[in-house]
Amino acid sequence: MRLTHRDLHPVAARPARLLTAAAAVPLLLVALAGCGYGSKADAGTAAAPSGGSGKKLSTGTVKIGFFANVTHATPLVGLKEGLFQKELGGTKVSQRTFNAGPSEIEALNAGSIDIGWIGPSPAINGYVKSHGRSLRIISGATSGGASLVVDPAKIRGVDDLKGKKIASPQLGNTQDVALLNFLAGKGFHVDATTGRGDVTVERLDNATTPTSYKSGAIDGAWVPEPTASKLVAAGAKTLVDERTLWKGGQFVATNVVVSQSFLKDHPDVVEAVLRASVNTNAWIKANPDRAATDVNAQLGALTGKPLPAAVIASAFKNIQVTDDPLAASLQEEADHAVKAGLLKAPDLKGIYDLAPLNKVLKAAGHPTVSDAGLSAH
């Protein structure tokens, strides 16, 4: 079965049916805290602060958080290449890595980190749960890097998904919402809470998904990188590259968020981090092979095991670093969660503050980016 763009675009093709649980499922904002990189919250792993020479900014240390994942290439590469420290001068960088969104949002709220790289669902969740007081999204980081990969012996087209078991990382996380929305758009009925229906949605930690696939416990998975590439290396085939479902092939995978109090008290530090982020993204685009090597080296240092060469090459090819937060896609992702019955319609007005980023972009001679009407100003 050859899939056309219309087949793979549930929004453009026809209105998605509401999932069977849409009217009954209670508000599951907590479930939306994960962002596709592991379902277990943890306290995070901290590294000793590092500092450079030069004048300190308005604070002696900036605490940043991110995941040991390919979709967090910006902090991984920028820290390894010294691009963040270059902009921060004598202000030290304190790093903390996380496995999932809930713990990073908790750390941001507790002041354990000041700035974090995180997926759209936990950013939305953190903002809504705090009634708009906890965070602002201040930049984009990556687009893409999520796919539906399946066992080609069992699934050759979308119709073959019926009766199969497909994994997602976590109930209500970014990829889970994408999978539920896609299935609903194709006419499959799935209970959003239990994952049971015409297709069984199994919520599995990304770390265990490849093992479950190899054992035959699941028939495929809608997962982010590098898990998607790990499955392909194990014999799976890509049925849906999520980029094909979005206008222009772009959707937000990772944002940069900041504590509102830190943004207010230390705008110079926020601006320095954003300059470093913009410079790092430009460096990655100019040096993709070395950037992939840097990411894999960082993954090895953080997790104890770098990825095989073929997997890191595939995973890195499937993401796009971007300064643009792709704000319109954030609203659409929230709409998908509402359709799935996982979220009451949120008011996202004020979730963005892109003034510092646009100042940096303008100074660098780059085009400014849009907040899609969701700015704090």
UniProtKB/TrEMBL annotation:
It holds the Pfam family NMT1_2. Keywords: Cell inner membrane, Cell membrane, Membrane, Signal, Transport. Its main location: membrane. GO terms for cellular component: periplasmic space; plasma membrane. GO terms for molecular function: ATPase-coupled transmembrane transporter activity. It is found in: Cell inner membrane; Periplasm. It comes from the Bacteria. Belongs to the bacterial solute-binding protein SsuA/TauA family. This is Putative ABC-type sulfate transporter periplasmic binding protein. It comes from Streptantibioticus cattleyicolor (strain ATCC 35852 / DSM 46488 / JCM 4925 / NBRC 14057 / NRRL 8057).
